[in-house]
What does this fold into?
Amino acid sequence: MRKLFAATLGVLSAVGGFVDIGDLVAASQAGALFGMAHTWVLLAGVVGICAYAEMAGRIAAVSGRAVFDLVRERLGPRVALLNLVASWLVTVVTLAAELGGVALALQLATRLSHLFWVPLAALAVWLVLWRLRFELMERIFGLAGLSLLVFAVALVALPTDWPELGQGVWQVGTAGHGWPLYWFVAVALFASTVSPYEVFFFSSGGVEERWSAADLARARSNVL
It folds into this structure.
């Protein structure tokens, strides 16, 4: 059971970082316009974020320090400050989008305006961050996030034209929308998959859980 709970950091990182409002919007737009033509972008994004997260986890396990700490040491305070400000701005924009996503989900469930839910969602997030211990938070939300597997169940349970789906994966085309829009959506989809806050979160989580060199296997299992 302890080993099972040890993997919740990876589940939380994956659910919070990979299945969020940015991914849902970007993936929905890509699918609506181009079908399965951007599957390769998702695959590249998964490999990329796994590579970065594995490196971040390895740094945390071996050195006991977060990634940004080493960025500041190796590249100097000016480059580190630029990195910090850029990452902070991206994270703030992402947080705003996530709060909006929670509000939209609650609007669909209750029919109350999303404007009513935004401040309540922000308050709920603040209370969770303020009151819950990190270990408890990662286990609760990590395991609850597994409910998103319902999408995989729905893919099998609902009538799906598998030959057409598979054919769409291998046929990369613009579907009449032009290559500029195709590449714009590709960049948006890749950016929603590989975000800096995911790596920082994973690295900081490893530091807080006091990973050591003996926990490298645990860190990699979280990445997978």
Q: What stands out?
A: The first helix runs from residue 2 to 6. The chain is about 80% helix and 0% strand. The mean pLDDT is 82.
